[in-house]
Every structure is written in C-alpha cells, then in structure tokens.
Amino acid sequence: MVPQLRAAYNAQFTAEKYAAFLNGIAAEGRTRPPFRIAETPVFIPKTLRDKMLDAADHIISVIQRPDFKERTEGAIPAGFRVANENGHSHFIIIDFAACRNAAGELEPQLIELQGFPSLFAFQELMGRQFRAHFDMPAGADNFPPGWNAQRYYDFLQQTILAGEAPEHVILLEVKPQQQKTLVDFLATENQLGIRPVCVSDLIQEDRQLFYLRDGVKTRVKRIYNRVIFEDLEKQKAFLQNVPHLFGDLEVAWVPHPNWFYRISKYTLPLLQHAYIPESRFLHAVSALPADLENYVLKPLFSYAGQGVIINVTPQHVADIKDPSQWILQRKVAYTPAIETPTGPAKCEIRLMYAWPDGAPKPALVHSLVRISKSAMIGVNFNAQDTWVGGSAGFFEV
Q1: In whole angstroms, how far apart are CA 44 and each of 7, 309, 374?
Q2: Where are the domains of the chain?
Q3: Residue range 116-143, pLDDT digits in tens
Q4: Phi then psi dihedrals of residue 368, to 5 deg
Q5: DSSP strand pairing (91-100 vs 346-354)
Q6: Mean pLDDT, residues 292-319 taken together
Q7: DSSP H or E stretch at residue 282
Q8: Is the dihedral of CA 179, 25, 197, 83 positive or negative?
Q9: Beta strands, E only, the chain
Q10: Could you give the count of Cα atoms lying within 13 Å of 126 in the half-sphere of its Cβ?
Q11: 3-state class of 366 per DSSP?
Q12: Prediction pTM value
C-alpha cells in the first residue's frame, strides 16, 4: 500500500528467504505454526494509520464512558458471568478492513473488536524474523512511534504480571498444546517466563488455584486468560477436574473473562464514526433495509469468521431463532490494495492495545495483519493461495 516500499520488497523476495524466515519462526517459537504465514509484511501508509487511530480513539472513548458497563450488561450470556470483574479490559483488539472511499483514497472500516488478547508475543517474533531474513526498509516500522522490543515487553510484563513472579502467573487455555496459537503461547513463555496451562491441570483449594510447575505445587495469583468460556463449556465433557472458574477466586484475571463479551460485536451498535459501518442488533430492526444485499449478518459471539452470513436474504433473517444474538452490519468492501507476484490481495489490520492496572487509558503497542485473496478474511480461508495468511504490519514513518 506504500508503492515504493512494496516494489522494493517484491523485487528482493526469494523462496529461499521465505523458507528461512519460516524456519526462524519455528526455531524461536519452538513449534511450526499450523496456519499460513504470508510471504510479505504489509506496508501501511501514514494516512491510513491516522484514520485508523482516529476511529480507535472514538471506540476507546466509548469504552471509557461511565455508563459503558451498564450499557453492556446484556452482553454477558446467562450462566457465563465470572465473579470479581475489574474496571477495564487489559487488552483491546480493533480490526479494520482496508477499503477505498469514493475518491479512491484508502480508508479503514471497522470489522470487529474484542476485549481479549491477541498474538502479542508472536507478532513481535514475526516482525523480528522479517527483519532478520529480508531487507526491510528504514521508512517503515512494525512498532508504534517511540516503541521498540524492550519497551514493548516491559509494558506487557507490567500489564500481565504486574509485579508478580512469573511462576505465580499462568497463561490459561483449554488444551493449549493442541491450539493453533501454541506458537504465541510458547513465545510468551520465552519472553515473560509464564507457562501455558490447561484448565484441567489447575488444582483448586477453596478460593485458591494451584498448578504443578516442575512437579512443585505452585500458587496461581494472576491468569493471562486465553480461555473462551463458551468453548470451555463445550469441551468440559472431554476434560477432567475442571475447577469452578466462574466463582469468587483469589486470582486476578488478565483480562477478566466478562470483557470478552462486553467489548465485542455487542459494542458495535454503540459506535458512530465515519470509519465504522452502521450496525444494529437484529432484534431492534423493525424493517429490513431495501438494499439488504449490502449488509452482513454476524453472530455476536463467534470468532475467526465463524457463522457470518455474507449474502443475506430475508429467509436468512427469518431462520434466525434468537435475533438478540445477531447484528446486522452494513457490508464493507475490501480493496485489493496489496500488489503481489500472484495478483492483488486485500487485508485486514488489527490494532492491539494493552491497558495495565492503574493506567488512565490503553496504549497502542502492536498490530497484526491478515492478507486474503478469497471472499473471507482469515488464515482458515486461504489455504490454497500464496502471498496470503497471517502477517505483520509495517507502518510508514
């Protein structure tokens, strides 16, 4: 998207460099990611970055409103509310599509947001491997202005560990060794010293949680939470000895599980901005738009694009049993703005914010990009293409 940077990168690309890049990720990450990693980073122009930041500032201002919790009480499904919710999410993830406006200028359009972690350690690892194996231009950086790897991990340590010793902080997931994001879990352990732990390996004694660390029963004081609780409920039948995580436990959640629901597609109808497409709760739509083909239907609490209906018809709407769990959102037209040797590609850019305890607001610390040549964005939808997949954003400086 920055023509001179794109041309220079494409000209120096070789399959050998790409293979070495992937091997570097696997070696440092201690596993080879099962999802596709793109052959290229994405070079993001200043103008597009500034527009995304403007929209993100609006989103954060809404989340910081005193009545935000009150307005999102209905987001938490019955039976999934976890005790001891804190005042804010430690992480905010904001996804934008790269689009073009009527004047042909690049502009973002909001796709989704989450009060949940993303691949914070893996994205830093990937960006560093791009630099190690390709001649990356001096005019672009994968960190925000003023940030580098040292400041980044210091900030993540402040957010996740908050002064606790690493042995008392765990990354919690359902069967972490089987997750596609294992490479991020292991990269997190490399950098912060906290280990991935399965929920079924927790030991509960009254209100306290423990786990075995090198055979020693060790107290858990903070949980870097990667568990999606609805997913946990679905898998409980295949797990053993899962503690009651919804109760009043003597642990600090990072982030607290309730924020996964509060900051989600449920938040979209609360937002109004030029770079945020119109979104309405389906149950609040009294009459379907005449141009229904220009809208998509999204279930509130799916992830990775699951359940999204792109070509909406009145019958799709009629077939939905619980409209309160869906939103109707104006369709976004991704633009194929990335020139690759195998044809143009479109992308989605994720801004990744962290918010330590005691900080007045979240800080933008990193980004993630997904490149696609198919109708759907996401690493699960592009397995047969090249120059697509998970990638890193390098912002024009």
Answers
A1: 14, 29, 21
A2: 3-277+332-396
A3: 999 999 999 999 999 999 999 888 999 9
A4: -145, 145
A5: antiparallel
A6: 88
A7: none
A8: negative
A9: 42-44, 91-100, 106-114, 140-141, 169-173, 195-198, 203-205, 208-213, 216-220, 222-225, 252-254, 279-281, 295-299, 326-330, 346-354, 363-372, 389-391, 393-396
A10: 28
A11: strand
A12: 0.95
At residue 172, the pLDDT reads 98
- CB count, 10 Å around CB of 248? 9
Phi, psi at 224, each rounded to 5°: -80, 100
- Return all residues near 329 (Cβ < 8 A) that are at least 6 apart: 268, 277, 278, 279, 280, 295, 296, 297, 298
For residue 345, the surrounding DSSP H or E stretch is none
**Tens-place pLDDT, residues 254-275:** 999 999 999 999 999 999 999 9
Amino acid at 381: F
Nearest to 93 by CA among 119, 111, 75, 113: 113
Radius of gyration of the chain (CA): 21
Bridge partners (DSSP) listed for residue 212? 217
Band (179; pLDDT cuts 50, 70, 90): very high
Task: Provide the token pair at 75.
Answer: 């987001």
Q: Which percentage of the chain shows pLDDT scores above 70?
A: 97
163: number of CA atoms within 13 Å, CB side? 3
**Can you tell me the distance from the alpha carbon of 316 to that of 312, in angstroms, rounded to the nearest whole number?**
6
CA pair distance 85, 191, nearest whole angstrom? 27
Q: Which tokens is 202 given? A: 């927790």
Q: What is the C-alpha separation between 377 and 348, in angstroms, rounded? A: 7
For residue 130, give the nearest of 396, 395, 391 by alpha carbon.
391
How far is 107 from 130, CA to CA, in rounded Å?
26
Q: Cα separation of 226 and 28, whole Å?
A: 21
H helices present in 42-119, as ranges: 46-63, 68-71
Would you say the C-alpha torsion 150, 259, 55, 389 has a positive or negative sign? positive
Strand partners, 330: 295
Are 224 and 67 spatial neighbours (Cβ–Cβ below 8 Å)?
Answer: no
CA distance 301 to 390: 22
* Residue 98, phi then psi, degrees to nearest 5: -85, 120
Residue carrying structure tokens 């792109």: 310
What b/e readout covers 54-70, taking b as 16+ CB neighbours within 10 angstroms?
ebbebbbebbeeeebee
